[in-house]
């Protein structure tokens, strides 16, 4: 069935006038009439009959007009749904994130986003930097929010949101607690280390290389920063962590900073997406929101 002709018939049927239909559709009256005749020929049905200066629908015309009304109402609904999806007001958003943004930044960002885009289904995946970026590259996430200056694939675009200072923290009764010591002396202590692939681990190792110092002994290796800082609070080891991750523990006195003379290290918090691909409406709206909140 010729849907263009059906739409013209639908407009004529609603207005009960070829003249008004031609004005609505912005095509000539002869063109409207020709399309209706072609549709009648295609269907083998008489759809319209003259009535004075206007027209009326035959029984076949009434039947077709009712179903055409449903069809084009559905078309309008679909156009609205597509517009909402394109604008990021519906659909899905999948975010891969490392532990710092996942625990200390994304909860408030997601709450603000959902207040504005309630119909978007949002899923967050938490892992280390390597896992999060791999998820993004495998199209299992739309964006990734990463803490740490990890080297990413050239297939990814990176935009830094802000930089957080890195701190050394120890248990309250540690001999270096609250003091200023040299980096070489602190590195002689036993450390709690994050797992392979963690950007925090890579930043500490890079600091050791930059200072031409040996890497510290690893007493415990843990898969999450929350577990690591709680181990320090429980009385064991030295931890190198982003300030945002340990600040509350420091303020409560559960762990204590050690001030170390060393080249300043900052933890960049960045959002990543796939290079050369436009962000979806959902992802673009989220990136715009978080950019305005940092």
Quick structural gist:
With 294 residues, the chain is an alpha/beta fold.
SSE topology:
Blueprint: H1 3-15, H2 18-25, H3 29-43, E1 48-51, E2 54-57, H4 59-86, E3 92-97, H5 99-116, E4 121-126, H6 129-137, E5 143-147, E6 156-170, E7 180-182, H7 183-186, E8 190-194, H8 199-210, E9 217-222, H9 225-233, E10 239-242, H10 243-251, E11 256-261, E12 266-274, H11 281-291
Parallel strand pairs: 3-4, 3-5, 7-11, 8-9
Antiparallel strand pairs: 1-2, 5-12, 6-10, 6-11, 6-12
Helix pairs in contact: 1-2, 1-3, 1-4, 2-3, 5-11
Explain what this protein looks like in three dimensions.
With 294 residues, the chain is α/β, with parallel strands linked by helices. Helices cover 46% and strands 25% of the residues. It has eleven helices and twelve strands. The protein has helices at residues 3-15, 18-25, 29-43, 59-86, 99-116, 129-137, 183-186, 199-210, 225-233, 243-251, 281-291, and strands spanning 48-51, 54-57, 92-97, 121-126, 143-147, 156-170, 180-182, 190-194, 217-222, 239-242, 256-261, 266-274. Helix 1 (3-15) crosses helix 2, helix 1 (3-15) packs across helix 3 (29-43) and helix 5 (99-116) packs across helix 11 (281-291). The two termini are 55 Å apart. This is LysR family transcriptional regulator.
- Secondary structure class reads alpha/beta
Portion in helices? 40-55%
Strand content: 15-25%
Overall pLDDT confidence: 91
Helix-strand string:
HHHEEHEHEHEEEHEHEHEHEEH
Low-pLDDT segments: none
Largest sheet: 8 strands, mixed
- Our Rg estimate from Cα atoms comes to 32 Å
Q: Which term fits the overall shape?
A: rod-shaped
Pfam family, one: LysR_substrate
Protein name: LysR family transcriptional regulator
Keywords: DNA-binding, Transcription, Transcription regulation
Family: Belongs to the LysR transcriptional regulatory family.
